[in-house]
Every structure is written in structure tokens, then in C-alpha cells.
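Checklist before submission:
- one chain only
- standard amino acids only
- sequence pasted in full

Submission:
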Amino acid sequence: MKKTGFGWCVAAAALGSCLAFGACGAVTTPQGEIALVDPSAAEPLPVILPDDPSPSQRYAAEEYAAYMGRVSGRTVRVLPPGYAAHGVRLVTADRAEGLGDDGFRLRATDGGLEIRGSRVRGCLYGVYEVLERFGGCRWYASWCERVPRRSRVAVPGYLDAV
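Returned file contents:
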């Protein structure tokens, strides 16, 4: 069967995702995993706002909670800045880190996940990366998305990606 232009774009995007993120095969995590959502836990890990969050960072937290809630079928809480619980923590990056307005860093921490990015778009883009890479969400157009149902969503315990 011959693929047309759009079909090739979709196939190339899928292959690119597989190569970039290892999505085509199982990833071994010898150092363990951090479960963002686990059926044996009382609730999913909450998302924690940074100090003095920007509108973009608030939106990022809301998007994470909404989509991870749809993925898991459970309520994901958004906690205020400074909350000491384990969770998915949004952190404002310093300019010296060189992430710019759009860059982000994902880092597994003791009992949680840190999404470090700018107050402009970095944290929001980091949230979308987590939802896509580990939650399986896909956005093809403003009117076309795929949000799978998963009882467990985890990140590798050694995750540190820019």
C-alpha cells in the first residue's frame, strides 16, 4: 500500500518519537521507577506550584492535573507553592541554567518528579512532554487528541533529561 504525504508525516513522527524517547521498546529501570499514578497508592502524586507562579505555570499545573486525571481516571490535586509533599514539582529555572523561555529539564527526585523551566513557556512544555512521553497523550490538532487510560504511569528513577 502506497503512503501519501500525510501518512508519511505521521509515520516519520512516530519513528522519530520512538528513536528519541525509546517508546518502541521496554525501558529497563534498574534504579527503580517513580510512580506518578499507581493503583496501589491512595491517590496520584499531586502537582506542586512554584513560588510566585506565573499564569503560564498555573496553566501548566492545571493541564497536568486535568490530563493525568483523564489518563488515570483519578483526581490529581494542584498544591500551593512551598508544599512539602512528594509530587510533580514545577520549579522556575534560573537564567544561568541556559534553558531560555522554551526549554525545560525533567529530573526524578526522591519520591517525585521535578519539571524545571521558565515562567514563560518552559514549565508548560515540560508538562506536555511528561504527558506525551510517560502518559501516552497525543495532540494531533486543536480538534484531535488521544488520551489513553492507564492505571499506572511511572518515570524511570534515573530520569534527568533536558
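Reviewer check: The beta strands are 33-37, 47-48, 78-79, 88-92, 104-109, 112-117, 138-141, 144-146, 153-156, 160-161.
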